[in-house]
Design brief:
By secondary structure, the chain is of the alpha/beta class. 48% of the residues lie in helices and 16% in strands. The strands form 2 sheets. The chain has an 8-stranded parallel beta barrel, surrounded by 9 helices. The longest helix is centred in the last third of the chain and has 24 residues, at 281-304. The chain is globular.
């Protein structure tokens, strides 16, 4: 099966009350772990590439690794998505390179300028059969090239969201309802503005919404990192029951990155601590790949609800 767009994925997810996992990829082991879990759980999948990943691994290498995954798992619907594209030129480049979905992030711009930029990308992408995710509202936090101070974060206005979608023609919309990028999402009690989400969903019936910064920063893996030499004090993510609740109100795509990083890094730290004489990457990257696989399996089965959907 060739790469697919997100259109049917999201339509099915909305009707079924579940979400598609959008997992950030940076190297071979991460891609292998994600795809193996999705294949075994029969779950449609979005593999997404950030600006940081393109800089680190080279877009061509990542795309070829994804193509290898398609050969190994031909029955699996996979969309290849650009995460946080910030210019028309970048979106145009990856579309021409074969990506089937792009995000244009104009959330830092004034409302009218965000509309103009998003519409430009939408017109180009739709002419080529590519779906477009946009963003309205700003998430706090730091991840790859995205950095937003807490005082600059703004929740998505429901009325603006409805106008934005109508005027841009975007296929999905990333909204800000309390999630944030990185491993330090909350200082106090974690919460999402579910009432705001419900209002947006009511104004945009049938339209797929997206949650960025939706890792749960599972304490087990924070503790593993700290136990074996890491320094990640006070990391706190989005409770998984809140993510599951959001999928019942129009959220069809959930971005997960920090949980993968924590699982992979924690296991590598553990392997080094237990076997300090080892210098064979296969010996520590193999268990790290398995940790990625089990993390993704957990998200698919227990959080996203999209197992056995293909």
């Amino acid at each position: 099966m060739p790469l697919v767009t997100t259109k049917k994925m999201f339509s099915d997810a909305y009707e079924g009350g579940y979400a598609i996992g959008a997992f950030n990829v940076n190297n071979m082991e991460i891609i292998q772990g994600i795809v193996e879990a999705a294949r075994e759980e029969r779950a449609p999948l979005i593999l997404q590439v950030s600006a940081g990943a393109r800089k680190y691994a080279n877009s061509t290498y990542l795309k070829k690794l994804v193509e290898a995954a398609l050969i190994e798992s031909p029955e699996l619907p996979i969309a290849l998505h650009l995460d946080h594209g910030d210019t028309f030129e970048l979106c145009k480049s990856v579309i021409e390179d074969g990506f089937t979905s792009v995000m244009i992030d104009g959330s830092h711009l004034p409302f009218e300028e965000n509309i103009l930029l998003t519409k430009q990308v939408v017109d180009f992408a739709h002419d080529r059969g590519v779906t477009v995710e946009a963003e309205l509202g700003r998430l706090a936090g730091i991840e790859d090239a995205v950095s937003v101070d807490a005082e600059d974060a703004t929740f998505t206005d429901p009325d603006q969201a409805a106008e934005f979608v109508e005027r841009t023609g975007a296929d999905s919309l990333a909204i800000a309802i309390g999630t944030s990028h990185g491993a330090y999402k909350f200082k106090g009690e974690p919460r999402l503005d579910i009432e705001r989400l419900k209002k947006i969903n009511q104004l945009l019936p049938g339209f797929p919404l997206v949650l960025h910064g939706a890792s749960s920063v599972i304490p087990e893996f924070v503790e593993m990192n700290n136990q074996y030499g890491g320094e990640i004090p006070g990391a706190k993510g989005v409770p998984e029951e809140l993510i599951r609740e959001a999928t019942r109100h129009g959220v069809c795509k959930v971005n997960i990155d920090s949980d993968l990083r924590l699982a992979m890094t924690g296991v590598i730290r553990r392997e080094f601590a237990k076997n300090p004489s080892n210098f064979d990457p296969r010996v520590y990257l193999g268990p790290a790949r398995t940790a990625i696989k089990e993390m993704v399996r957990h998200k698919i089965v227990n959080v996203l609800g999209n197992a056995n959907k293909i």
